[in-house]
Amino acid sequence: QVQLGESGGGLVRAGGSLRLSCAASGSIFRIIAMGWYRQVPGNQRELVAQVNAGGGLEYADSVKGRFTISRDNAKNTVYLQMNTLKPEDTAVYYCQAYIYDTTTTWSIYWGQGTQVTVSS
């Protein structure tokens, strides 16, 4: 089994910064991609940022220039540095990972979510 452990959420004023971390542990053969999604009650979960095994990056338009995703392959950890936060960034942020847990079988894993609240 694979677990994703998240940390770093909290309450911050508009214009402030937060850094989220997500560490994968357990039976991991290879990590394909790791990323962050967010969800506001009543809305669908949306992609915030993702980094693949080759280092390719993808960002939602709403966070480009403000958020930076990075990955430490040695620690199986992905980070999301969030700067110039806005009230509309308020959501539960979920870590997601595509992981081979054997040589031939891969699955999508989710973290438990961490609340980010940005006050105006």
Q: What do you see in this structure?
A:
The strands form two sheets. Strands 2, 4, 5, 6, 9, 10 and 11 form a seven-stranded mixed β-sheet that branches. This protein has strands spanning 2-7, 10-13, 18-26, 30-39, 46-52, 57-59, 67-72, 77-82, 91-100, 106-110, 114-119. By secondary structure, the protein is an all-beta fold.
**Strands, total number:** 11
Order of H and E elements? EEEEEEEEEEE
User: What is the CA-CA span between the terminal residues?
Assistant: 41 Å
Low-pLDDT regions = none
Backbone shape: elongated
Based on helices, strands and strand pairing, what is the structural class? Answer: mainly beta
Mean pLDDT comes to 95
**What percent strand?**
over 45%
- Helical proportion, percent range: under 10%
Cα gyration radius (Å): 14 Å
Number of helices: 0
Largest sheet: 7 strands, mixed
Topology:
Layout: E1 2-7, E2 10-13, E3 18-26, E4 30-39, E5 46-52, E6 57-59, E7 67-72, E8 77-82, E9 91-100, E10 106-110, E11 114-119
Parallel strand pairs: 2-11
Antiparallel strand pairs: 1-3, 3-8, 4-5, 4-9, 5-6, 7-8, 9-10, 9-11
Can you give keywords for this protein?
120 residues; mainly beta; 4-stranded antiparallel sheet; elongated
